[in-house]
Amino acid sequence: MKKTLTLGIAIILALASIPSLRGQSNPYDKYLTVADIEKVSGISRVKQVPREPRKGAGGHLNFADKNGNMILIASFLTAQEYGFYRNEKRMVKAIIPGVGDEAMTGPAADPQYMFLARKGDKCVALSTFVDPATPEKILLTMDQLITLGKIVIERL
To answer: What per-residue confidence (pLDDT) applies to 135?
Structure first.
Protein backbone atom coordinates (compact mmCIF):
# COMPACT_ATOMS: atom_id res chain seq x y z
CA MET A 1 0.00 0.00 0.00
CA LYS A 2 2.79 2.42 0.96
CA LYS A 3 4.70 1.73 -2.30
CA THR A 4 1.52 2.24 -4.33
CA LEU A 5 0.79 5.51 -2.56
CA THR A 6 4.39 6.63 -3.15
CA LEU A 7 4.09 5.71 -6.82
CA GLY A 8 0.77 7.58 -7.03
CA ILE A 9 2.34 10.68 -5.50
CA ALA A 10 5.25 10.41 -7.94
CA ILE A 11 2.78 10.28 -10.83
CA ILE A 12 0.90 13.31 -9.56
CA LEU A 13 4.20 15.19 -9.20
CA ALA A 14 5.18 14.20 -12.73
CA LEU A 15 1.85 15.49 -14.01
CA ALA A 16 2.47 18.68 -12.04
CA SER A 17 5.60 19.31 -14.10
CA ILE A 18 3.53 20.06 -17.21
CA PRO A 19 4.33 23.57 -18.46
CA SER A 20 1.89 26.19 -17.26
CA LEU A 21 -0.91 27.16 -19.58
CA ARG A 22 -1.71 30.31 -17.61
CA GLY A 23 -2.05 33.40 -19.76
CA GLN A 24 -2.94 31.33 -22.83
CA SER A 25 -6.24 29.97 -24.02
CA ASN A 26 -6.31 26.38 -22.88
CA PRO A 27 -6.49 24.01 -25.87
CA TYR A 28 -7.85 21.26 -23.61
CA ASP A 29 -11.02 23.13 -22.60
CA LYS A 30 -12.93 21.48 -25.46
CA TYR A 31 -12.43 18.00 -24.01
CA LEU A 32 -14.00 18.38 -20.55
CA THR A 33 -16.15 21.16 -19.10
CA VAL A 34 -17.55 22.25 -15.77
CA ALA A 35 -21.01 21.34 -17.07
CA ASP A 36 -19.83 17.79 -17.86
CA ILE A 37 -18.51 17.32 -14.33
CA GLU A 38 -21.60 18.80 -12.68
CA LYS A 39 -23.89 16.57 -14.75
CA VAL A 40 -21.94 13.36 -14.10
CA SER A 41 -21.06 14.00 -10.43
CA GLY A 42 -24.12 15.85 -9.18
CA ILE A 43 -21.79 18.41 -7.57
CA SER A 44 -23.00 21.97 -8.10
CA ARG A 45 -20.92 25.09 -8.64
CA VAL A 46 -17.83 23.26 -9.86
CA LYS A 47 -15.16 25.62 -11.11
CA GLN A 48 -12.14 25.22 -13.32
CA VAL A 49 -8.99 26.34 -11.56
CA PRO A 50 -5.55 27.27 -12.91
CA ARG A 51 -2.55 25.00 -12.70
CA GLU A 52 -1.06 25.35 -9.22
CA PRO A 53 0.94 22.22 -8.33
CA ARG A 54 1.38 23.29 -4.70
CA LYS A 55 -2.40 23.20 -4.31
CA GLY A 56 -2.75 19.86 -6.08
CA ALA A 57 -3.85 21.36 -9.42
CA GLY A 58 -1.13 20.03 -11.69
CA GLY A 59 -2.98 18.84 -14.78
CA HIS A 60 -3.99 20.39 -18.06
CA LEU A 61 -7.51 20.84 -16.65
CA ASN A 62 -8.17 21.18 -12.93
CA PHE A 63 -11.55 21.31 -11.25
CA ALA A 64 -12.58 22.24 -7.71
CA ASP A 65 -15.79 22.40 -5.73
CA LYS A 66 -17.43 25.66 -4.66
CA ASN A 67 -15.08 25.85 -1.64
CA GLY A 68 -11.96 25.53 -3.78
CA ASN A 69 -11.25 21.91 -2.81
CA MET A 70 -9.76 19.96 -5.70
CA ILE A 71 -12.01 17.23 -7.06
CA LEU A 72 -10.55 16.31 -10.46
CA ILE A 73 -7.39 16.63 -12.53
CA ALA A 74 -7.36 15.83 -16.25
CA SER A 75 -3.99 15.31 -17.91
CA PHE A 76 -3.49 14.68 -21.61
CA LEU A 77 -0.67 12.29 -22.37
CA THR A 78 0.72 10.18 -25.19
CA ALA A 79 0.07 6.55 -26.04
CA GLN A 80 3.62 5.82 -24.91
CA GLU A 81 2.87 7.27 -21.47
CA TYR A 82 -0.32 5.18 -21.31
CA GLY A 83 1.83 2.13 -22.01
CA PHE A 84 4.08 3.00 -19.08
CA TYR A 85 1.11 2.98 -16.68
CA ARG A 86 -0.44 -0.10 -18.30
CA ASN A 87 2.78 -2.08 -17.86
CA GLU A 88 3.23 -1.06 -14.21
CA LYS A 89 1.38 -3.79 -12.28
CA ARG A 90 0.90 -1.60 -9.21
CA MET A 91 -0.98 0.93 -11.32
CA VAL A 92 -3.60 -1.36 -12.90
CA LYS A 93 -6.70 -2.40 -10.97
CA ALA A 94 -9.04 -3.20 -13.85
CA ILE A 95 -9.10 -3.09 -17.63
CA ILE A 96 -12.21 -1.28 -18.85
CA PRO A 97 -13.49 -2.50 -22.23
CA GLY A 98 -15.34 -0.29 -24.68
CA VAL A 99 -13.61 3.01 -23.89
CA GLY A 100 -11.28 4.23 -26.62
CA ASP A 101 -8.68 1.76 -27.83
CA GLU A 102 -7.92 0.66 -24.27
CA ALA A 103 -8.67 1.89 -20.76
CA MET A 104 -7.89 1.04 -17.15
CA THR A 105 -8.48 2.03 -13.55
CA GLY A 106 -5.82 2.25 -10.87
CA PRO A 107 -3.85 2.05 -8.77
CA ALA A 108 -4.06 -1.67 -7.99
CA ALA A 109 -4.48 -0.97 -4.26
CA ASP A 110 -7.50 0.75 -2.76
CA PRO A 111 -8.66 3.39 -2.89
CA GLN A 112 -8.54 3.67 -6.65
CA TYR A 113 -8.47 7.26 -7.85
CA MET A 114 -7.31 7.15 -11.48
CA PHE A 115 -8.84 6.35 -14.84
CA LEU A 116 -6.72 6.29 -17.99
CA ALA A 117 -7.89 5.77 -21.55
CA ARG A 118 -6.03 5.73 -24.86
CA LYS A 119 -7.34 6.57 -28.30
CA GLY A 120 -4.78 6.35 -31.06
CA ASP A 121 -1.65 8.20 -30.02
CA LYS A 122 -3.46 10.20 -27.30
CA CYS A 123 -4.30 9.40 -23.71
CA VAL A 124 -6.31 11.04 -20.96
CA ALA A 125 -5.61 10.48 -17.28
CA LEU A 126 -8.34 11.50 -14.84
CA SER A 127 -7.50 11.61 -11.15
CA THR A 128 -9.80 12.39 -8.29
CA PHE A 129 -8.86 13.03 -4.69
CA VAL A 130 -9.27 11.14 -1.45
CA ASP A 131 -11.93 12.55 0.85
CA PRO A 132 -10.02 14.16 3.76
CA ALA A 133 -12.81 13.20 6.18
CA THR A 134 -12.89 9.58 5.01
CA PRO A 135 -9.49 8.51 3.60
CA GLU A 136 -10.82 5.23 2.21
CA LYS A 137 -13.32 7.16 0.04
CA ILE A 138 -12.61 9.12 -3.13
CA LEU A 139 -14.48 12.32 -4.05
CA LEU A 140 -15.69 11.01 -7.42
CA THR A 141 -16.60 7.36 -7.85
CA MET A 142 -14.85 5.14 -10.37
CA ASP A 143 -18.10 4.97 -12.35
CA GLN A 144 -18.11 8.78 -12.52
CA LEU A 145 -14.44 8.86 -13.61
CA ILE A 146 -15.15 6.28 -16.31
CA THR A 147 -18.17 8.25 -17.56
CA LEU A 148 -16.09 11.44 -17.69
CA GLY A 149 -13.32 9.51 -19.46
CA LYS A 150 -15.80 8.36 -22.10
CA ILE A 151 -16.80 11.98 -22.71
CA VAL A 152 -13.17 13.02 -23.18
CA ILE A 153 -12.34 10.05 -25.44
CA GLU A 154 -15.33 10.84 -27.68
CA ARG A 155 -14.02 14.41 -28.07
CA LEU A 156 -10.36 13.52 -28.76
So the answer is: 79
